[in-house]
Amino acid sequence: MRRGTLWLIYGLVLAGSGLAIYVLYAQEQSESPHQYWHIATLVGSLIIAIGWIVASGNTVRNAQRQHAITISLAYEYDAKSAERRKTIRRYLATGRTQLIPSQGSDPPIPPYSEVAHELYEAVDYELNFMDFIANGVLSETLDNTLIRNGMQSQFFYRYYQAKPYVQAVRRQNRRIWSSFVEICDEWGFDAYTPPTDGS
Question: For residue 21, what are the CA distances in angstroms to 10, 25, 33, 175?
Fold first, then answer.
């Protein structure tokens, strides 16, 4: 449940509570004072409803946080992901090295058309995984604060390195890695400064 929807439900329940209490109170005053049990029953039901809504909201937020932690740990400690990052580091040795085909580099970076090359397989996997995480953040399935605090530097680092490649691929299909690009822009990638050589 989205946060905005939750606040809308809170507002509707509270507004309905106020209106119902006012109407019942006016009736009691005009007909037979000192008989407030109708109001007590209504207020008790509304308090239970509000408590249920609050508990549901907390459950959703806790699930978002738990998913965010699980995803972050999977990215950091999965053995296959670590191998793919090693493959990328062989070709893009520093944070300032960008993914631009070059025969003069050591090892040479192949053309973008060689999609089965180990470098592009590793980069594609990284970008796909980050796009999946970004989609979770944008849809509020994952907690934005936890993901941003824990993974923003990795997102920016990889986006800076792969940006020429990302732009080349997205010229063919704008939907590819769209959530990844959107979340990087939202988090302020324009102000990012890549680390110095050797990082």
Answer: 16, 6, 15, 51
Residue 64 CB neighbour total at 10 angstroms: 21
HSE-CB of 34 using CA atoms within 13 angstroms: 0
Closest CA to 64 of 147, 142, 169, 177: 142
Query: Tens digits of per-residue pLDDT, 29-73?
Result: 665 555 555 666 666 777 777 777 777 777 777 777 887 788 777
Which pLDDT score is estimated for 138? 95
Contact 141, 67 (CB under 8 A): yes
Number of domains in the chain: 2
Global pTM?
0.72
Q: Rounded distance, CA 31 to CA 133, Å?
A: 60
Same domain, 57 and 89: no
Which positions ≥6 away from 129 have C-beta within 8 Å?
75, 81
Q: Which residue has the tokens 């990215």?
A: 75
Q: Are residues 58 and 90 in the same domain?
A: no
